[in-house]
Amino acid sequence: MTVDTPTLDRLSINLATVRQQWGLREAVEGCARAGIGAIAPWRDQVAAVGLAESARIVRDHGMRVTGLCRGGMFPAATPEGLKAAHEDNLKALEEAVTLGADCLVLVVGGLPDGSKDIRDARRMVEDGIARLLEAAGPAGMPLAIEPLHPMYAADRACVNTLAQALDICDRLGDGVGVAIDAYHVWWDPDLEAQIARAGRAGRILAYHICDWLVPTTDLLLDRGMMGDGVIDLKRLRGLVEAAGYTGLHEVEIFSKDNWWRRDPDEVLATCIERHRDAS
Amino acid sequence: MTVDTPTLDRLSINLATVRQQWGLREAVEGCARAGIGAIAPWRDQVAAVGLAESARIVRDHGMRVTGLCRGGMFPAATPEGLKAAHEDNLKALEEAVTLGADCLVLVVGGLPDGSKDIRDARRMVEDGIARLLEAAGPAGMPLAIEPLHPMYAADRACVNTLAQALDICDRLGDGVGVAIDAYHVWWDPDLEAQIARAGRAGRILAYHICDWLVPTTDLLLDRGMMGDGVIDLKRLRGLVEAAGYTGLHEVEIFSKDNWWRRDPDEVLATCIERHRDAS
Questions:
Q1: Residue A3 domain flag
Q2: Cα-based distances in Å from A49 to A17, A55, A99, A205
Q3: Under-70 pLDDT residues of chain B
Q4: Within 13 Å of residue B54, how many CA atoms lie on the same side as its CB?
Q5: Nearest residue of chain B to residue A161 (CA atoms)
Q6: Domain that holds residue B153
Q7: Could you tell me which residue ranges the Xylose isomerase-like TIM barrel domain spans (chains A, B) (predicted)?
Q8: Which residue does chain A place closest to B211, by CA atoms?
């Protein structure tokens, strides 16, 4: 599969990538300086600056917001916990609307404390998304279920394959789709078919990139820069685009011992270079 | 699903569980002392004692060998590498036969050095198993493909789901099946259907148990003792046995900071207790 060289206007920076170095304002300014026109912030980064001020910063710099990270974390051990999760998700929805985000990304949550019942957690996730959709639909905010790598099934997200996420979408109808993150799905033997399925259904709301390092030394915070690992990112982008996706490529790298320790302007320059040459 | 309490005669100890404390002889003697009647050794443990002597030790103690770990590691970057892998697998096969193992466990291998082509690695795996089967079939030694958790897709095994392993079995025919390891498959949204499918096809050759800890601090060497993590092991065993499996439950725990540092007799005593109460 041959793919074109992606232009800079297809690049978005998930602000987790520079979260140790910069707050939202500095990150937006840094992206603007580098010629990058899109970002995806995290809610704590927005909260640190304030929602209205964050929206102003984004608007003043003409930044597109490819997603707000994150809603989700639906399962809970008690009815009160479920209610609190729903209320927090309504707030996340409001923030996504205020920021003009393309979608609200959902990291759906894992097992409630003390539970070994992953099927029950998965039911809570689906119930939670259905309930959130009642508000997100009228608000016109797409919900992007992000299937997470199976190594996060217990503690972060019990939706672990694209097929599983798309099954949920099929049952819930309009207003919900998927965020396809290379790091989470690259290993899936059924990937090709499920990306095509997602595209046919018009469900691909976001495409995230980084790389899988060998060895990986930390389950959460050792993601690689594109080109430094083993994911065939050009092929993967080819599949996503062949499925009809025309959106941006959002770089999201958690890297406590490497990229989080570097000069953030250098990180962005590397993202630009690797997006062009290795993604 | 209600399951019975498993009796001690259903317990097997994969000798990786005590590999830091004991060699093969001490481990077999330790298991015998504890009233355990089955083990699964690793090839390096056998090599350290010698194959003939290992077989004698096993026989003298009346130990059943529920599997030899491991054949596999099929993909290679060069024809010479593929040939070397095949020859090494023929040796593993001979060792499994000599030890009277129930099966030769296959950890199939990941990406060859420098490769990002997981589909190609998967083709090499299937070719390699097919070739090994030409010798294993006549030798009467079942080959057990062990799908490994997706976090090992790059460097240990590019067969990552039970469905994928069973698809390979379907294409290869008789003499090959699967080792179902709770640690590797517990997260799978399609687990129930695939276990039933494996059972219908008579493909369940081994069942391995341990637990998934939260948090997990190391990708390879932080497996938990049954009951200490989040896997619903009783339900999982129920599914495997409902699918027709009547074999043993093999405890396999890699745990560099906990169980590998303890008195191995205590480790075995804990395995017995947790096998009974939490598996």
A1: no
A2: 18, 10, 13, 27
A3: 1-2
A4: 27
A5: B189
A6: 8-278
A7: 31-264
A8: A116
